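Recall that a protein's primary structure is simply its ordered list of amino acids. Everything else, from secondary elements to tertiary packing, is in principle encoded there. The following example makes that idea concrete.
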Amino acid sequence: MLIANKGVPAVRPSSKEQPLPPEGSGDQPWVTVEVVILTLRAGHLEVLLVKRKEHPFLNYWSLPGGLVQRRESLEEAAARVLKERAGLEARVLPQMGRAPGRHPIYLEQLYTFGAPGRDPRARVVSVAYYALVEQSHVREIPEESALFRLQLKDEASAAEIYDAKGKKYSLAFDHAEILAVALRRIRGKLSYTPIGFELLPEQFTLRELQAVHEIILQKKLNKASFRRKMLASGLLQPTGEFEKGTGFRPAELYRFRREA
């Protein structure tokens, strides 16, 4: 598993990626990684995408990714993509968990996509990862990248992306399918793991925690029932502090008890 953290040097400097071979140049599969980078912003689940500057799918938006280099593990390749495309440093740790005093980013292997013909240039097998990024870490996005709102209308459909004005865009390759698999995985894990906390700051209110669940699940939850469940879970540690600068009664702040 991987942990990513802003400003922690850990992966070796990347070398210039080797281009894919021309179509029909050989039967040997090429291995790539694609990273689904998700964050919450202004009440929406958003994904970071990169605009393609070459064929195929010229000027289409795609997931950030790249070839796995010869002396690079899959985890190192995913960490490199996260660094180059989102400005987030990553390092490989023996197990998932936040390092003391830091707010690392959740990065997990998702699935392997290898259907013949998914890339017209060559036989390409892609190992997908997904990263959950608290919004304060997404400050400086590279010029060729942008955040798009993500929707999955039903469990059987492909994911759809929209800009802030509601304009819908098509994705390159099979990346809409990869996004759908990622969102279904996260929705499923909400019911048995504390994955929703990865999108929150170190201190948060119960209202903010419920909003994370509702945005990911795309449905409203009963306020009283949700709060009872969370408070009884043992995952919340009261900070003794309250939010400031609100126009209503300040809510108590909690932090995630990771050792629970």
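The chain is about 20% helix and 30% strand. Residues 1-18, 92-102 have pLDDT under 50 and may be disordered.
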